[in-house]
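Lecture 7 notes: from sequence to structure.

We start with a single chain of 320 residues. Read the sequence below before looking at the structure.
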Amino acid sequence: MKATRRYLEAAQRVYIACHIIPDGDAVGSLLGLGWTLRRLGKECTMACADPVPLRFDFLPGADEIVAHPPSDEDIIVAVDSSDTERLGALYNPAVFASRPVINIDHHITNTRFGTENLVYLVPSTAEIIYTLVRRLGVNLDEDIATPLLTGLITDTRCFRTGNVTARQLRTAVTLMRAGASLTAITERVFNHKSISTICLWGQALAGVQTRDRIVWTEVDREAQSRCAASANDLGGLVSFLGGTRGVDVAIVFTEKDDGHIEASMRAGPGLDVSGVAFKLGGGGHPRAAGCSIDGDMTAVRERVLGETKAALKEQAETKE
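Now the structure, written as C-alpha cells:
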C-alpha cells in the first residue's frame, strides 16, 4: 500500500475505472476514491463503460461518471475489476502500458495486471479504499463515506454473507459517524425498483429452469427491449435465485448489446464457482462469480451448465 500511496500522491491527474455492469461496490469504490483524491487537490476522471444503475444515482458524483477511455492522465486506477476484460471499452492495451496502473480489488481470481496490485481477499473493494483513505491522511466526510458504505453493504448483502466479521461492522460504524446514512442507502439500493426492473424480473422469473441442482434463467435483448430495461436492471436477481431451496448454484444468462452472453453465478455455502468463471474467461469469488462469453444463448448456456455440473461433481468427490 505504501507504493500505491506514493504513486497517487505524485500524480496530479488520475483516471479511475470500474468494471462493466457496475454493482454497488464498483460504483462506491470508484466514487469514494475519486472524492478522496479530490480532497488532495487532484484532478480525477471517474469512468465506467456501462451506465450507472439508477439505484446508485443518489451517490455524490454519480452524474460525473463518464464512459470514455483514459487520455493524458498521469496514472490509471482500476477498482473492483479482476482483469482488464472486465473494464470493457475503457481498456486499451497501449494506453495501459504507457503509464502506471494501480489495480485495487478483492476478487480471488484477480490476474494482478497492475504496476501495483492492491488485492486483498476482503468482503468488498470499498474496504480497501477505506484503508487507503486513511493511509493518504484524508479525513472522512459524507461524500467519501456514503459511496464506501454503499460498496460495503451491497457486496455483503447487508452484512449477511459468510465472510463478514466484526471488522466490517466496525468499518460501517466509522463510515456512519462520518456522515453516511445506512438507512438511506439501504432504502435506495434495496427497496426502490423501477417499473422496467419489475417488468424484466417478471419475465426472467417466468423462464426459470432447473437441472442437476442448478437453477437458471435467460434474459435476451428482446426481453430487455420489451421492458425498456437493460442488463443493469437485473442487479440482485441471481442472489434472489440463489435462495432457491434444493439447488446448489444459481445462474442468470444475459444477452448484451455486443452479442456476448453474461453469466452471473451464485453458489451455496461450501461451494465454489470462481473456478468455472475463471476457466470461461471471467472471475469473482468462490460463491459469487461471472463471465462474458461470445456466442448464442443456447450454446453458452449449455457450456456454462456443463462446466458448473462438472465442478460441483468434483467438489462433492473431494469432500468424500
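The mean pLDDT is 95. Keep this in mind for problem set 3.
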